[in-house]
Each structure stands twice: as C-alpha cells, then as structure tokens.
Amino acid sequence: MLQGMTVFDSHTHLGSAVHSGRVRPVDDVLRDMDREGVDVSLVIPFPVVEDMRGTHDEIGDALRRYPDRLRGTACIPPFIPPQQYRDEAKRCREEYGFVALKLQPQYQAVNPLAARFDYVFESALENEMAMVCHTGSGIPFALPSLFMFPARRFPDLRIILAHCGGGGMLVAEAIVAASFCPNIYLETSTLMPNHVLEVLAHIPASRVMMGTDLSECMHTEIHKLLGLGLQEEDLRAILAGTALSLFGNSPETAGCSTRLPAASLRTGDGAGR
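The structure corresponding to this sequence follows.
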C-alpha cells in the first residue's frame, strides 16, 4: 500500500524481449513492486518474444507462486491460424487464470477496423478476458479511434487503451473514444500530469487506471497521480479500484479451470451494455 491506499499496476512486463534485449524475471517485478508500494500488478509479455508459449508459461508459473500479487496477460501473435490463437487464449485462461489479452499494433499490424481480425476480440470475450490495446507508437493501427469499432461490435468486451494514446500526442483522441464507448477504459502510463487532468475532465475515474510500463518509470507514474490534488475517491479508483473491478479482487486458484464470475470482471458505469 501507499499512503494507506491500495495500488494496482495495470501495465508492467515480465519475461525477455527480443526487440530491446530487456530481461525482467518475476523476482525483479516483485522487488520493484515492494519498493514503490504496489500491491498487485497485471504482468504482460514484452511485445516481441522468442517463445510465445514459453513466455506465457513463465507468467503462469509466477501467478501460481504469487497469486496475491500478480494477474496474467497473454500476448499472442495474431497472424497464426485463428483457431491456434483461440486455443492459446483458452489455455492461458484455463491453466493459469489469465485475465487479459494484449494487442500490440506497434509490432503486430492488426487493423481494428477489419472484420478479418474479429477472432482476436472474440477470443477475449470467449474467455471472459479484457483486451489491453497498445496505442500511440505504431500509427496508423495504434490510433485510439480505431478501437471504437471493435468496442461497438463487441459491447460486452472491456477494452483498455494502454498509454491513453501515447504521451500527449493522441490523448484527446483517446478521450473521444472513451466518451463514445462506455466499454473503453484508459490507462495513464506515459501521460504528463496535465494530460491526466484533461482525461478526468471528460472520463470518470471509474474508467481510468494507473500503469507503469517499465520499471524505471514506476515511481514517476505513481507519484504524478499523487501530486494532482485529486479527490480521494477518484485517486483510489485510478490507483487500484478500476483495475480491481476489471480483473477481480483475487486471482483464480492456480491450475484451476473455474473462471472468475462475470460480475467481478465488469464495472457498473456502463461497460457491457
């Protein structure tokens, strides 16, 4: 906890990255969490990995070892046969209790407008997972506005726009997307403090969540929120409440195929309508 408040990091990475050479084992994730007062983290594979299934198993093992601290996200290459994509999403959910899928258009050229990729979003729905979508770098397919189309096609799907447009360049577009689609949520990593205030002028805190992305950014990402003078209710929602409402208060029993109740995966402010 931090200043008496629960902290849920809704965007951090675990594993080894081919594109950057970063290596972040679970012990490093937990060390960083403890240093900054983070109670729970949503761990995500790096965008490019050598062994997708092996990385998911590494995350799954971490969930089993630290069920009170971690939630899991799968990042599946979208250009494999659709049934293989669906099978891996189901495996991650049923074997390990993963709660989200990650779409990384910066490295995966998926056009959210194209029905050809509906199976990506359907896989999340089928497994009662949220969909974390990178936005910002990777334009055009990382434009926040494009995710309005799957949000409208799949109104029960909870879509998180990671980085809220990527810095300040597309934050207004992310705000528009979330304004018109109540099942779109915004994650604040890379935003400047003034951009967070701009988001909150239009989007309720119950659809905004804190993420840190990289270990060296954790302190800044958390403390920029503490310094904004927000109402305590809003600050608690952004630091943890929104993420807990999406990803459940406690993960599934390791290795158990029983799913979290659907009610624990939704908020009451319009998502799923």
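The chain has one domain: 10-253.
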